[in-house]
Amino acid sequence: MNVILRAESPEANLEIQTDVGTNMMTRDWMRTCRWLGVVLCLSGALAVSSGCDKSPRQKLVQAKVALQNEDLDKAKTNLEEVLSVQKDNLEAKRLMGEVYRLKEQYKRAEEHIENIWNNQGLDADNAELSARQRSFKDSLTTQFVDLYKDWGNSINAEENPKKFEQTVQRGLEYDDRDMDLNGMLVDFYWERGKRLVEEGNKKEAAQAFDKISQLRTPRGDDRRKKAKKKARDLQLEFFKEEGRKRFDKDTKPMISDMDGFEVDGDTIVIEFEQNVDRRLNPNKKKHKAKAKQLAYLALLKQLSQVGLTIAGLPKDAEVTTIVGTSQLKQILLGKLDIGDPDFRRGEYTINAELPVGNAIGIAYDLKNAFEEAQKSKDKNKEQNSGDAGNTKEDAGGN
Predict the structure, then answer these.
(1) Which residues have a Cβ under 8 Å from the Cβ of 259 and sit 6 or more positions away?
(2) Which DSSP letter does residue 25 get?
(3) Which of 59, 64, 167, 303 has minimal CB crowding within 10 Å?
């Protein structure tokens, strides 16, 4: 008997002819049937009307293709289908964050990516993560950076400067070397600083320019260097203005109550007498040097009070402890116009003049010295705290 089998579809038009015995199928017939089954299956899979469900892996591929084609709705649908059967599929979750970002749903994207980051424990040091975790962490880091770039660019920096600044800074927390994010903030602070100078707001202008010194600029961009100088000059100008106000209000009345100090116009006249050991002989060089040292140490304390008051620092601050005697001498004595001393047995007198402008300069130097000392103190405290924590961990491990 001759049997003709025909399989027709848009993809296949097959005509197969074979001999069939009355009692059994030949091996050729069986192979033909199997081959035909494969063809029919493939034809059905390719047919749109087949109704076959795609695997999560295929859906994920389709989502990626849709993202590349900027078909965000299709990408979202495919990802939702993947997550409906594989709720812990990290790649699908990550790509869903991309969908939110590209749809400009920035807050939702941030919360979504942060949730993945926290659930995977990616705040841990890279040394504590597996190679796979580190790779995934790198992908999310890039995703965060892209998110905050787009988010920052969507914000009007003039109308909402605080939100713009905070948004871009969050991106730098994930990659402080990203030149796009750095450039966004450099541009922002530069323009803000110039505008504040025009408005006469020297304090905030100095703060804006100072922030540029902490950012990265490309080669050939000298704004970082210029901003550092602008910040320093503006800080000094602002301090002089404020220091003069404090001098007139607080320091001048204080000086009138100090023995050996008097304000004459814009000059502080000093005739400071210090009692010294009567055994020190004014005619002996070593004795004279000793008496001078004792007198100047006493004078430094008085001048420190003047400087602290102008700087707005606590009057009871332990200056020599914080700054150091050697640095204090350099700050204070370098701005004095010192006349001839008068050394008599039991008393050493220093005659000097200190222009008010110089007194304000002393106050400025003291303020900077205090700030540097505080930064160093905080850094040491943080380092010691970290060392203590490591020691505790080592002890626990043993």
Answers:
(1) 272, 273
(2) -
(3) 64
Question: 246: exposed, middle or buried (C-beta count within 10 Å: 0-12, 13-18, 19+)?
Answer: middle
Are 138 and 107 in contact, with CB atoms under 8 Å apart? no
Return the beta strands (E) in 197-266 as ranges.
261-264
Q: Give the pLDDT confidence score for residue 42 in this predicted structure.
A: 37
* pTM strictly above 0.70: yes
Q: Give the pair of three-digit tokens for residue 80.
A: 């939702």
On whether the CB atoms of residues 151 and 106 are closer than 8 A, the answer is yes
Alpha-carbon distance values, 312 to 104, 219, 316, 329 (Å): 48, 40, 12, 20
Q: Strand pairing partners for 268? A: 263, 354
Question: CA 295 to CA 278: how far, in whole Å?
Answer: 13
| DSSP letter string, 237-289 | HHHHHHHHHHIIIIIHHHHHTSTTEEEETTEEEEEEEEE--TTS-TTSHHHHH
Does residue 191 surpass a pLDDT of 90?
A: yes
- Alpha-carbon distance of 153 to 68, in angstroms, equals 22
- Distance between CA 323 and CA 367 in Å, rounded? 10
pLDDT tens, residue by residue, 193-244: 999 999 999 999 999 999 999 999 999 999 999 999 999 999 999 999 999 9
Phi and psi dihedrals of 261, rounded to 5?
Answer: -120, 140
Tell me: pLDDT of 21 over 70: no
Q: Between these two residues, 270 and 387, which has the higher pLDDT value?
A: 270
Q: Which long-range contacts (CB under 8 A, 24 or more apart) does 181-184 make?
A: 181/145, 181/148, 181/149, 181/152, 182/215, 182/216, 182/217, 183/217, 183/218, 184/149, 184/152, 184/153
Q: Give mean pLDDT, residues 133-157.
A: 97
Q: Taking each helix axis from N to C terminus, what angle separates 161-174 and 131-153, rounded to the nearest 10 degrees?
A: 160
Residue 251 pLDDT level (bands cut at 50, 70, 90): very high
Distance CA 98, CA 143 (A): 8
Over residues 307-320, mean pLDDT: 83
Cβ atoms of residues 313 and 366 within 8 Å? yes
